[in-house]
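Run log // design_07
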């Protein structure tokens, strides 16, 4: 799998740009602020319908424009597929596959798979649990696009349930009110939450040995690492959760029991206190948690190992993803830089951004683009 052509209209700093791409390594070179990250951000957007830099779509549209359009010709098993996404802030986005409109933009998920590593990924190790939950859920969607719907359904249920908890809690505190409607939303939360929770647990089990292997390759045995999924059900149910099977039906029952036990504090606080939205993935380095204990270099290596493990997992599923490294090599010492280059050189397609040509290791020789003031010119 690789991107053969990228076309942008009013995306970020680009009024319009056409970028032909080949398999192998391509480096986008230019000083900061010239637009090189915008190019790989667009590729990632086609794969995920989201940006690794901002949570909303509005900043993706060039100042003064009403919409942005991203087009990517993706070659899968030797056959090209044209994916087009129209970004409309404040309105519904639209998408087309081979010029034919699709009912929902998420229909394009799975046509292109990418693994993107950027400086923002340091938050996977040092940031709050939401960063690690997003990492897991994005990877779930990359492996099985149906989980985009599962995640969306869970977020919708959670929003509705929280609104009901706030209104019902106010009525209960005033001495009246019927909270029976909560039972319906409890069931919805348990059903959608169990589907997401079971998938995350399976994913962490599959990912853990791959992360340990990748960390060892990048850092030469300065591990070992370990991943533990910390569910909010553990504190809500204690030993009862420890004895719970990890299939979806058992987890749904556990969620139902947990919200039953927490009904009073949930009504008092007006928020859902248990479910996948309150979970975390604990990263271990040796016997200690990486967060708070890992050095800056170790944290970088850990974040990189998470992305490389994702790449290995997606490749094992079938269909090697496009590997994107956004301004990464400048943050690595020479030893880690060379180890990473050797690790990724065989990939079918690697897209790199760098401010200085010398930041790109010789092992990753390939096409070069000079990116300056919203233009991208091939120079090698």
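design_07 sequence
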């Amino acid at each position: 799998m690789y991107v053969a052509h990228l076309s942008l209209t009013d995306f970020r700093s680009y009024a319009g740009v056409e970028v032909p791409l080949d398999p192998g390594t391509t480096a986008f070179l230019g000083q900061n602020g010239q637009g090189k990250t915008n190019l790989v951000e667009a590729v990632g957007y086609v794969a995920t319908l989201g940006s690794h830099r901002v949570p909303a779509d509005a900043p993706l549209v060039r100042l003064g424009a009403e919409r942005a359009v991203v087009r990517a010709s993706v070659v899968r098993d030797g056959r090209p597929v044209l994916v087009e996404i129209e970004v409309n802030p404040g309105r519904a986005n639209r998408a087309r596959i081979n010029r034919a409109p699709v009912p929902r933009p998420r229909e394009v998920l799975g046509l292109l798979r990418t693994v993107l590593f950027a400086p923002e990924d340091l938050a996977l190790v040092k940031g709050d649990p939401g960063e690690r939950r997003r990492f897991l859920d994005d990877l779930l969607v990359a492996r099985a696009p149906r989980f985009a719907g599962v995640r969306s359904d869970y977020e919708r249920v959670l929003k509705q349930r929280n609104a009901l908890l706030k209104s019902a809690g106010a009525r209960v505190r005033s001495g009246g009110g019927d909270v029976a409607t909560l039972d319906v939303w409890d069931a919805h939360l348990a059903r959608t939450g169990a589907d997401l929770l079971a998938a995350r647990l399976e994913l962490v089990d599959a990912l853990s040995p791959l992360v340990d292997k990748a960390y060892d390759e990048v850092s030469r045995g300065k591990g070992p690492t370990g991943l533990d999924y910390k569910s909010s059900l553990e504190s809500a149910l204690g030993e009862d959760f420890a004895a719970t099977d990890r299939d979806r039906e058992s987890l749904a029952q556990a969620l139902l029991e947990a919200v039953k036990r927490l009904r009073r504090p949930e009504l008092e606080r007006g928020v859902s206190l248990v479910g996948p939205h309150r979970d975390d993935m604990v990263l271990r380095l040796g016997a200690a948690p990486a967060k708070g204990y890992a050095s800056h270099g170790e944290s970088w290596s850990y974040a990189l190992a998470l992305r490389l493990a994702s790449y290995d997992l997606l490749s094992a599923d079938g269909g090697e993803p496009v590997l994107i490294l956004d301004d990464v090599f400048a943050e690595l010492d020479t030893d880690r830089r060379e180890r990473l280059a050797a690790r990724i050189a065989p990939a079918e397609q690697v897209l790199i951004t760098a401010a200085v040509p010398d930041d790109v290791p010789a092992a990753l020789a390939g096409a070069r683009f000079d990116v300056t003031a919203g233009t991208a010119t091939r120079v090698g």
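The mean pLDDT is 92.
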